[in-house]
């Protein structure tokens, strides 16, 4: 008669791999969310209590937000960031999708070398090209203008690479059938490929918008006009030479972060689906 294996009394069963991963995910999530909660809580504290280390404010006030929107043109900063980020996102999606389609479907001499050169620019960090980019923008008269903030940020190898990988996974049958019916490459791209690219384009739109909403270094270098100040420079303006008004900084940071958090939560499904359909693991 078979006997059942029993565990010694008092010994706990070891956690399963699934339970261990769940615990790890909870811990990492708590560590990630805690700074956001601290920022949100501290934005309602007074200047004397903002660094007291308590998560719950002892003295609750909304004067920080009133100061941010009345004493400085913070609404103008938000509009500049939104306007610049929206234009960059729209232009980048248009040009990147065309370049990626050409690199994925059209056959021409040097196609792979051209893609390799574009992909290699991902290895070049932004500070390396900051001075050459500034000199070029100055020679073209783009400094202190919306054009100087928008045009240099449009072209990004990451978007071309991700879209090219997505297009390589699309079935060729639909495109070949359209070509047989007399459609040219432009009509195939506009009427067939582009509508099928909505998931990846939605995710890239979020990535591009977030990246340019949080831009700091290039706007700092390219502009001196206060009317062109973006939101990140506006937040930095609350830091004085001798001290930092942390209550105002955290209030402004909360105002700048909340729209982006809402944007992510609304479109998080598109982000996940785009990563799955683009072949990235």
Named CATH architecture of the largest domain: Orthogonal Bundle
User: How many runs of DSSP E, i.e. beta strands?
Assistant: 0
Output the CATH homologous superfamily of the largest domain: MetI-like
Secondary-structure content class: mainly alpha
The CATH class of the largest domain is identified as Mainly Alpha
Uncertain regions: pLDDT < 50 for 5+ in a row? Answer: 1-5
Order of helices and strands: HHHHHHHHHHHHH
Helix content: 55-70%
CATH topology of the largest domain: MetI-like fold
Q: How can the largest sheet be summarized? A: none
* Rg calc: 25 Å
Mean pLDDT: 84
Strand content: under 5%
Distance between the termini: 49 Å
Organism: Streptomyces calvus
Main location: membrane
Membrane topology: Multi-pass membrane protein
Keywords: Cell membrane, Membrane, Transmembrane, Transmembrane helix, Transport
Could you characterize what this model shows?
The chain contains 13 helices and no strands. The chain is mainly α and 281 residues long. It folds into two domains: 36 residues, no CATH class; 217 residues, MetI-like fold (Orthogonal Bundle). The longest helix has 32 residues. The protein is globular. 68% of the residues lie in helices and 0% in strands. Helix 3 packs parallel to helix 6. The N terminus is likely disordered.
Write the layout of secondary structure elements.
Blueprint: H1 17-42, H2 63-70, H3 74-105, H4 111-120, H5 126-139, H6 146-154, H7 157-168, H8 172-180, H9 185-196, H10 198-213, H11 217-222, H12 231-236, H13 246-277
């Amino acid at each position: 008669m078979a006997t059942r294996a029993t565990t010694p009394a008092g010994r706990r069963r070891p956690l399963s791999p699934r339970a261990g991963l769940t615990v790890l995910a909870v811990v990492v999530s708590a560590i990630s969310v805690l700074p956001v909660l601290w920022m949100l809580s501290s934005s309602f504290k007074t200047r004397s209590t903002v660094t007291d280390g308590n998560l719950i404010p002892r003295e609750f006030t909304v004067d920080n937000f009133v100061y941010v929107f009345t004493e400085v043109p913070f609404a103008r900063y938000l509009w500049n960031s939104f306007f610049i980020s929206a234009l960059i996102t729209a232009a980048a999606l248009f040009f990147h999708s065309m370049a990626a389609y050409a690199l994925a479907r059209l056959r021409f001499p040097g196609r792979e070398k051209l893609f390799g050169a574009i992909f290699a620019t991902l290895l070049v960090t932004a500070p390396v090209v900051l001075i050459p980019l500034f000199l070029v923008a100055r020679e073209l008269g783009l400094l202190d203008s919306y054009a100087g903030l928008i045009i240099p940020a449009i072209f990004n190898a990451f978007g071309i690479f991700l879209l090219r990988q997505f297009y390589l996974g699309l079935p060729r049958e639909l495109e070949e059938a359209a070509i047989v019916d007399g459609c040219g490459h432009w009509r195939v791209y506009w009427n067939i490929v582009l509508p099928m690219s909505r998931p990846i384009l939605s995710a890239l739109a979020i990535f591009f918008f977030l990246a340019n909403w949080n831009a700091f270094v290039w706007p700092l270098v390219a502009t001196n006009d206060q009317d062109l100040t973006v939101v990140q420079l506006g937040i930095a303006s609350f830091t004085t030479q001798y001290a930092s008004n942390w209550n105002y900084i955290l209030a402004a940071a909360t105002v700048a972060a909340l729209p982006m958090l809402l944007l992510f939560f609304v479109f998080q499904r598109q982000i996940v689906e785009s990563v799955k359909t683009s072949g990235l693991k």
